Amino acid sequence: MIPDIIKTIILGIIEGVTEWLPISSTGHMILAEEFLKLNVSKAFWEMFLVVIQLGAILAVVVLFFKKLFPWGFNKNKEEVNNTFSLWFKILISCIPAGILGIIFNDKIDELFYNYYTVALALIVYGILFIIIENINKNKTPKVKTENKITYKQALLIGIFQILALVPGTSRSGATILGGLILGLERGVAASYTFYLAIPIMFGASLLKLLKFGVVFTSMEIIILIIGMLTAFIVSILTIKMLLKYIKRNDFKVFGYYRISLGIIVLLYFLLA
Q: What does pTM read for this prediction?
C-alpha cells in the first residue's frame, strides 16, 4: 500500500503539470483516482482536487507579480494604466464561465463528469489543436503582447473558457485555443491563460471550501498543505518550461498527447 503522503505528493505533481499544459488535469486525475485514491471521505477528495489548485495559483502570482501588480517596480503612469487595463480584461474574460459555473456547476458534474465525456473531450480538442496549428502555420499573429488584447477579444476568450466547464476540455486548452483562433501569438495566449487562472481557480477553490467547511482532521490539514506546496513548486517549473518551449515550437505535440490519453482512458474503462 502506498502511504497517503506519497500519494498526495504524486497528485500535487500531476496537478502542477497538467493544470498549465493544455492536456486536461481532469483527465489525468480520473486515471490517478483509480490508483492513488486517498483514505479520505468522498467530499474531502472532491474538495482536495480543487483546493490544491491554490498552490498552482500562487505559482502564477509569484512568477508574474511584477507584471500583474499595478504599483511599485518603478512603473510609470502608462505602465500602471496598462496593468489596470489588463486586469479589467482578465475580469471580463472570467465573467461568462464564472456565471455559468456558479449556476450549473453541480449539474455539469452530474451530467458530464464521467470517463466517456472526458475521453471524448481529450480527443476532440486534441484534434482541434492540430488543425488550428496547421491553419496558423504560415500566418503572422495579430496580437504579440497582452496589452494589445482588445476588450472584445477578452470577452471572446471568456466565451471559449465556457467550454472548459465540460470535464476533459482543459481550462488552459480552451483559452489557448480561443486565443490562437483570435490571432494571439502563442506566448501571449499562454500567459493570458495563466492570468485568467487567478480569479477563476481562486473562486472555484473558495466555493469548494465553503461547501465542505473548514473543519479538518490533522491528517487532512497535512494532506492539503503537502498537496498545495507540491503543486506550487511543480507549477513554477512547468510554466517556465512551457513558455520556453513555445518560443520555438507549436502546440501540436499536446494535441497528439491528448488524443493518445483519450484513447487510453476509453480503453482502460471499457476493458476494466
A: 0.90
